[in-house]
Amino acid sequence: MLNLFKMAFRNLGRHRRRSLLSALALSVSLALLLFMAAFFKGEMRTSMEDTLKLDSGHLQVRAAAYDPAKLSVAWEYLIENPAQVAAQIATLEQVKFATPRLIASGIVSVRDESTGVQIMGIDPASDANAPYRDGLLQGVFITADDRDGILIGAPLAESFQLKVGDSLNLLVNTAEGTVDEQSFSVRGIFSTGSSTYDKGLVLLPLAKTQSFSGAGNHASFIFIMLKDREQAEAVAAALVSPNFTVRTWTEMNELLVLINDFANAYITILNLIILGVTVTVIINTMLMAVLERTREIGILSALGMKGNQVIALFLAEASLLALGGIAVGLLAGWALSAYFGATGIYFGDIGVSGMVMGDRLYPYLMLEDVINLTITAFIVTLVASYYPARLASKMEPVEALRAEK
Amino acid sequence: MEVTKIENVTRVYKIGEVETKALGGVNLSIENGEFTALVGPSGSGKTTLLQMIGCLDQPTSGSVWVNGRDVTRLNRNQRADMRRGQIGFIFQFFALIPTLSAYENIEMPLLLNGVGAPERKARVEELLKAVDLADRAQNRPDQMSGGQQQRVAIARALATHPALILADEPTANLDTVNGEQVMEIMTRLNQETGVTFIFATHDPRVIKYARRVVTLRDGLIV
């Protein structure tokens, strides 16, 4: 066995450059596979995390008639006494935060420019708003009793050239179906890392949003974060009541789940293409090795080496080639993923409706992908080498001995 | 006792529509310990006959017995077993594995036979001494002369104590001095170990070493 690998190692050394190039082909493809896996995983992971913590939460408790597409603050669509409902929900052991949020549609205008926004009324004291508080670039966070303070996203501030202390006019669609308008003072400018999300969002204290929009003591939903998102179904079941609907994060983010599935299918096809190219290189190298060493195979046969031992010899060469290629590929793939995982890849504002996507994509390499792809690369190399190895094993000793080389 | 017996062996090669008869019904019996030369011009069937005895090729008809077994009835793997255990080969072109040292080349048949490490080491060292190459053990084929390479091939052929050693033109690629040295070593080993040698040649200087000469012409023994 040891001798087999020793022979295999020396055989690879006969054409060092060719062996190195073949191993390199495997290294490059494995590095690419790992980086692609990390890229997609990173993309899905961050957009899922951002969507959950900023937009949907793990659960939402809504009034039975609530329609998120309408952004209506008409009372029949809303939850009454939301603070009380949220406080009750927060007593559940699995719940991390439960906070009421009121969503209304509005228009921000500054001088003669205007843009449509989503107004989100929040309870400033709730820890659920940490992503906004921690994302403050300038100014301070709003307080619950602030009557004319507003928080705006950085892209909005930039497009209207607003800074802390500046005023803006906010128009809101009220519960009665009319519009109301008020001037607000910018208390702070935040960035959640997703320009798409930030450019269309302004934050007001819940009480102010309720009075401004005529929603009274109502909220659109109770935004719930759990200690473990896998508990969503169980908690949802516990919260069922005739007055409310409870939606879990998987129900609310169907598009994201769908895109995740699509990405997995897409990455499988890409993997197959990359592996297919690598297989061609490896088959070519091993076939050359077999054809060049025909007479040697004849000698080994004459010495009594059997077909399966000839196969084993060539597979040993392929294994060594694979091990070398995989070692370098792992290192390169890990280094690429780690580097971009730390610095991120800037994509900017490439928002997809229904999805929160960060401006920077942080590849995230998972151990599971590393193990799966490494094993796949190894097996693929051996499978690719099997045909040339079998060809060698089928050679008639007499014919092989007659060969030039 | 006969180590090999050939009965009515024919071998016809078919290339396209053309049939070439390499052996046309050969009968031959070789006794244990013989030192026999197969002689004849190129194309007379010497190499083909050696390949039949060596289980490298199968006759078109007839039977070949080696050590009491009809090898024409064996399958591919059984023939490989036969070559590994009973037969040693020496080829005209030295036929060493270029990536292995002299030591490792001699060790190869022992490894294929599953011989244990201490026994292997003792056997290889003994053989290296027997062919006067103890100081060349670690040299690879490209670091040795043709004569030295052929001596390694002889040692390798002897490694597993085969019943029979088949040598196809063993001196054809050697100068006179090296050729004679190789023949002397083969003669000595035949006498010392009693192993049977059958060698094909058309070189009169080699034929003189033989104790029995079998002449072939156009695929027939004459």
What is this entry, summarized?
Chain A is an alpha+beta fold and 405 residues long. Chain A is built from 14 helices and 14 strands. Chain A has a six-stranded mixed β-barrel. Chain A has a two-stranded antiparallel sheet with strand order 2-10.
Provide a descriptive summary of the structure in words.
The complex is a heterodimer of chains A (405) and B (222). In chain A, 53% of the residues lie in helices and 20% in strands. Chain A contains 14 helices and 14 strands. With 222 residues, chain B is an alpha/beta fold. In chain B, strand 7, helix 6 (176-193) and strand 8 (196-201) form a beta-alpha-beta unit. In chain B, 48% of the residues are buried. The mean pLDDT of chain B is 91. The chains are: A alpha+beta (405), B alpha/beta (222).
**Derived structural class of chain A:** alpha+beta
* Element order of chain A: H for helix, E for strand: HHEEHEEHEEHEEHEHEEHEHHHHEEHH
Tell me the Rg of chain B in angstroms.
17 Å
Query: What's the helical proportion of residues of chain B?
Result: 25-40%
Question: What is the beta-strand fraction of chain A?
Answer: 15-25%
The strand count of chain B comes to 10
Low-confidence stretches of chain A: none
Envelope shape of chain B: globular
